[in-house]
Structure prediction request, 1039 residues.
Amino acid sequence: MRPEPGGCCCRRPARANGCVANGEVRNGYVRSSSAAAAAAAAAAAAGQIHHVTENGGLYKRPFNEAFEETPMLVAVLTYVGYGVLTLFGYLRDFLRHWRIEKCHHATEREEQKDFVSLYQDFENFYTRNLYMRIRDNWNRPICSVPGAKVDIMERQSHDYNWSFKYTGNIIKGVINMGSYNYLGFARNTGSCQEAAARILEEYGAGVCSTRQEIGNLDKHEELEKLVARFLGVEAAMTYGMGFATNSMNIPALVGKGCLILSDELNHASLVLGARLSGATIRIFKHNNMQSLEKLLKDAIVYGQPRTRRPWKKILILVEGIYSMEGSIVRLPEVIALKKKYKAYLYLDEAHSIGALGPTGRGVVDYFGLNPEDVDVMMGTFTKSFGASGGYIGGKKELIDYLRTHSHSAVYATSLSPPVVEQIITSMKCIMGQDGTSLGKECVQQLAENTRYFRRRLKEMGFIIYGNEDSPVVPLMLYMPAKIGAFGREMLKRNIGVVVVGFPATPIIESRARFCLSAAHTKEILDTALKEIDEVGDLLQLKYSRHRLVPLLDRPFDETTYEETED
Amino acid sequence: MATAAEQWVLVEMVQALYEAPAYHLILEGILILWIIRLLFSKTYKLQERSDLTIKEKEELIEEWQPEPLVSPVSKDHPALNYNIVSGPPSHNIVVNGKECVNFASFNFLGLLDNPRVKAAALASLKKYGVGTCGPRGFYGTFDVHLDLEERLAKFMKTEEAIIYSYGFSTIASAIPAYSKRGDIVFVDRAACFAIQKGLQASRSDIKLFKHNDVADLERLLKEQEIEDQKNPRKARVTRRFIVVEGLYMNTGTICPLPELVKLKYKYKARIFLEESLSFGVLGEHGRGVTEHYGISIDDIDLISANMENALASIGGFCCGRSFVIDHQRLSGQGYCFSASLPPLLAAAAIEALNIMEENPGIFAVLKKKCQQIHRALQGISGLKVVGESFSPAFHLQLEESTGSREKDVKLLQEIVNQCMSRSIALTQARYLEKEEKCLPPPSIRVVVTVEQTEEELERAASTIKEVAQAVLL
Prediction:
């Protein structure tokens, strides 16, 4: 059933088929190069007909993004797996209820037993009976720099993961495929660390005030000027936490009577910000431009529900790289739609800033677009810059408005000075302002690592989601039992990976996720790949039949979109 | 007989026809034709009108003009031009190029430029670098985080503590982790903005009670009890929470915790306590408002505080029983979905806790200083002091408003500016006027720290007095 890994004949149609994702004629967005290959592939995949026209299009580079269909048998087995787990869950709840099985979880105080229960029982069923079995795969404590290799504190559980004991041993030199250290700036030596240390000694760790009161340091101003220059926008503002950058600024931009069009896979912080804003939220299918265009069209034509007034403004929320899918936003198309329908665009570059584009300026740079076409450029410093916090960049009016109206500027403590300095030095390094070409090399190294790693995994026969240029690489596991098994087997082989299941993914699409880094050397990657290959055989994870389904061919149901009005 | 009469009528009709004028006949003829036309014409369809053609849709799309993304901000907006602090924001602060004594940063214990705290942070920086590059779940948990959580739990004498990487997000994430749609939250009107956002995210029913008014709270609880009796099935699944602050950020007053605890057991509502101002300030050991009143910490379901004030680091924490706190590790949005706290900031917080534990006398010193300036600021004509005498952050409000908020703000800003030029750094308490549920009146917030000497406190008080008199009279 599974094709032999590595065969060149398997690979070619796969790549070409991925290209077809652009070959959608209605909007005329088409990849210019290798159109012939795409056409050939379209012909090969007899079931799907794609019209490919060569008209230059909006994409300046190939856009290869694919999501292989879940094999039917695997899907059925996955559901059976969850069924068995649920049945056993009920059985064990029954046993716990009658005190046959020992209860490990914390309980309510005796004095408050007659209060309304703090949790709904079904809420915890999943945690108690499914998550608890494989809990050791998350929150693994580390005790070193989260660089290419990391030291993990060994822990044991004697009560089936209800509690952990630290053995005191340290698992040294675990290959780190989990941290978002895209450009390798998570380091405890070098110029960034030295600069941060200097500022720490001068300024101290905290700020003890908000930006609007007395917590606006000269360092903050310096950082904001640099960020604006880095992004190629008029002005920028920075905040103390990436999550809060979204949740505390979206409400400042839109409100009642406005419409938010949000990708279905947007991060929790965007969803929270959208909800707090009081605007109406409509969800479009992940990265699906037909779905987005339909929502845009309907919104303008039909106006607000019930009152029938036109919307005050429409804000599209998208991410640069989606952290669970490894997909890259179809930014050229989004921008074309946004212009056509006069909507505003909010682009969250949490994962893509630094990690994409020939100069590391994120997804706008990757597609060779003009940053001015994006109304709100948001991103975080947590990932590529090895620091913490977030920013928003855009026109000067926008930033002036946020300086006066952002929740964060008024009520939240500003960025810690040493963290600011880390961002400044790492950003200057990427821009080449430190007088070296180190930053540029990092960006190139990451792009190379990404392509290499993704190609090798595909050759091995795994189902890999996402764009071939995305440093976030999801490897599909599907079955719940394999989540735990994969995480543990990899750690046994000294590789730290992230595994995710429901509710972070759809119920049957459990996956492992690798995050590549410029700090990974070829040897490290080869070691990791060798082990993944072995574990893949051991756990029978090589599901791929090399029949890639382009994103647009994922089922698209026109009638299903949620509407939330608060 | 009958037929004869009928015939006669017919004859009469024919006769009338002859006698009628021609125009009359023509008119009637036209009318008859009109009726026939109406009867046979196509029926009128409602449906036809509402379906838009593609062209019409395009026109509508063409026609629609959105509002600008943001409205322009005038150049002299009071919040647009920030003060610029050069160098560290510690006891002596350089604001807009002028060296001042800091009466504005929440650096209550003076730990911001404490060499021990800096050394601890530096050691951590050299070991771990700056960022964590991941959320707690995915290799973002460092041993320092576990240490800090353990230390905080031990310090507060609770079972467990959980840390967040941002002070604001702590309570704003904690509330919606427990309180869901349909639950009821009783909250003080003066509650800070983070609480308001947490409540909004929870989508629960919110009942506001008058600031620190236990009777008003009890009235609401009673009302709810009556409501519950009407619908006991719903009441069995409706959680009730009371959300209060220890020392209120917006008023500087303390919450009447003993009475609230009584109400808690009487009406079976859980208490969430926000202690950002009172943690590391109140009580013999700085454990906050529970220690201040001598209340067992177990009576409070959840305590949240930030580490950005007394601890002079960044981030926040929640503590309480494991039964309550552990839930946030999967349900606290700001915990799960955000990168974890940079280890150097966690290390700074640990060292700050060490210092607090080693010098419990520091809290009495702070209290004494608060009382000193509080006393010295009484009796300024035109300004009133709002807040407890032991609160290290309290407000100076205008005794009488000029009638417009804008003018009040300008007056107070003038006082702040003049104090600043006389080397006393102060700031107004800033609010988003349109977003606040119950907007507090404009005020200058005075912050007391242990580093301020008696002379400095006296000088600050007399400066404020003089300036206020000059500006307000």
Observations:
- The CA atoms of residues 58 and 64 of chain B lie 10 Å apart.
